[in-house]
Amino acid sequence: AVVLAEPLCCPSGAAAAQQSPGADGDETSSKVCGFCGVGGVGPEAVGTEVPGSGGLSCSDLFGYAQTLQDGTGDCDAVVLAEPLCCPGAAAAQQPAQDNF
Asked: Which one of 2, 42, 59, 78 is least enclosed by Cβ atoms within 10 Å?
């Protein structure tokens, strides 16, 4: 039963398992969910509770995202929290404004 918590507690091991090619050699399916990109969760948001997540923090979601494959429904759902958790994500989603 403890092994079931491994993806949440040990994201580096889960990420390594996700990044290795599958038995059929299909390397495209092993890309890890890109939640917060390479920068990770912003230091000011580490303990921030994500609304609608059942009490999970940004840090919890980052660890969970490392266990997901990119392009899956679960990954897409986690990515919705990027504006709250990831530095620069909110600015990147803002439309450019004209300075007239």
From this structure: 2
